[in-house]
Design a protein that fits this description.
The protein is an alpha+beta fold. The protein has helices spanning 4-11, 26-38, 58-76, 91-99, 108-115, 119-131, 149-170, 231-241, 245-257, 262-271, 275-285, 297-308; strands at 42-45, 51-54, 135-138, 141-144, 175-179, 184-188, 195-196, 199-202, 220-224, 260-261, 317-318. The protein contains twelve helices and eleven strands.
Length: 320
């Protein structure tokens, strides 16, 4: 059966909740409910009696719709009959489901990069999901079986909901530019400093750290994660938040002036969905001309002279 915390979502009623039905103490139930409320999964009203209602959002709707489908899959498949499926909707299992695609194989390194879990955790979770026939494996990589596509939909929506709540902590008017597994990029019209808690300024506004100060366009992008941003991440975030003529000119200039790890740049580009742009930029840096919105060689050389005293054409690129 589903874990106790998620069971509260589907069983919450418009009257006082009967904690005895879950076999929980009053203290434990209170902690679970407050956690679910903070995650945007339930709404709590009143005190005595306390009214618990499922929150009105897509994540909760998907959760309630997938339970019958998921249970039916396990009942109709003899190898799965009697297996506990509660943990696939929580923790690292949910992260891996969000990182995988339905019937579209992905390499192990790419799944790990998107899921934000250790390699050992990823192997363990994938093995468990494959035993339950939720995940399959081909020569090209791992994928979610079409029968369990609703699980993928819920995982994506759940993390988007959590990221939306996190973004509003920085700015109630912020908009999400990109949403991943417990990480996001948001746009705001207010400068919050280079770092505020676990939010870090990123994109073009961060180029000043590498010798290229730019006049703000009035929009600031912040990345949420506790880890420090690498140079390659800042560049890829800049591409994700804008790839017009202005952005490409500054990004190409910075890449000519600053050593970078090409392998890391390509992997991050795949994660953030800008692989084609990065390949085109690397070809441009290698001497191949590109049409507009790519800049002219003269524009790049002028910026290089202005900010860096010139840029070497043989800029160092590390393989790994």
């Amino acid at each position: 059966r589903p874990p106790r915390s998620t069971h509260c979502i589907s069983s919450a009623a418009s009257d006082v909740y009967k904690r005895q039905k879950l076999g929980l103490s009053k203290g434990t139930l209170s902690v679970l409910l407050r956690s679910l409320e903070k995650k945007g999964l339930v709404e709590l009203e009143g005190k005595k009696p306390l009214i618990i209602k499922p929150a009105k959002n897509k994540a909760v709707e998907l959760f309630n719709s997938i339970l019958p489908v998921t249970y039916r899959q396990f009942i109709l498949n003899p190898p799965l009959r009697g297996r506990d499926i509660s943990n696939i909707l929580t923790g690292n299992h949910l992260k891996v489901l969000a990182a995988l695609e339905v019937e579209k194989p992905q390499r192990l390194w790419f799944v790990q990069l998107k899921a934000n879990v250790s390699k050992a955790t990823l192997h363990r979770v994938l093995n468990e999901l494959m035993e339950r026939l939720i995940v399959g494996k081909k020569k090209e990589g791992y994928f979610i079986s079409e029968h369990f596509a609703p699980l993928k939909a819920f995982a994506d929506e759940y993390f988007y909901l959590q990221n939306s709540l996190k973004a509003k902590e920085l700015d109630p008017n912020a908009s999400i530019v990109w949403s991943g597994v417990e990480e996001l990029i948001l746009a705001t019209g207010t400068f919050k400093g280079k770092r505020l808690g676990n939010f870090q300024l990123t994109g073009l506004a961060r180029f000043s750290d590498y010798g290229l100060p730019l006049i703000s366009s009035g929009v600031y992008h912040y990345y949420w994660s506790s880890k420090e941003l690498s140079f390659e991440e800042v560049v890829v975030h800049a591409l994700k938040t804008g790839s017009g003529a202005r952005e490409l000119l500054y990004i190409i200039t910075l890449l000519k002036a600053h050593p970078f790890n090409e392998k890391r740049l390509k992997r991050l580009a795949a994660k953030f969905g800008v692989s084609k742009l990065v390949e085109d930029i690397l070809e441009y840096l290698g001497g191949k001309d590109k049409p507009y919105p790519f800049p002219s060689r003269e524009e790049v050389e002028e910026l290089c002279r202005q900010y860096f005293g010139g840029c070497d054409d043989d800029n160092e690129r590390k393989a790994d």
